[in-house]
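2024-03-11 09:14:02 INFO queue: dequeued item DNA-binding transcriptional MerR regulator, len=123
2024-03-11 09:14:02 INFO validating residues
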Amino acid sequence: MRIGELARLGGTTTRALRYYESLGLLTARRNSTGQREYDEDDLRLLAEIRSLTGLGFALEDTRPFVECLRDGHSSGDACPASVAVYRRKLAELEECVTRLEAARDRVRAQLEQAERRGRPCAR
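2024-03-11 09:14:37 INFO prediction written
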């Protein structure tokens, strides 16, 4: 399939595909006229990339998953490097949740203080 079809099937743009190719996440083959050609394996790689970036993973974090699929595994997270990325991302998310909970608690305390002082002025 050509780049436009891959973009359409993968729910992205040709520009994004060229960018993924420049990063080495996708590898297009060229036909006799120099046009990019892709196959179902590339669509699968693209789906993995899009799924992970949809969860908030950086493009570079998708690399171990893509490589795992390229190595013939049935799932991009079947390799230790992919699991390590999951662990790192989960730790980042847990840290973010902790910061958000602390901010929520501070705002709640400020609100409670404001409410104890009395009714806010009406504007």
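2024-03-11 09:14:37 INFO annotate: Residues 90 and 96 are 10 Å apart (CA to CA).
2024-03-11 09:14:38 INFO item closed
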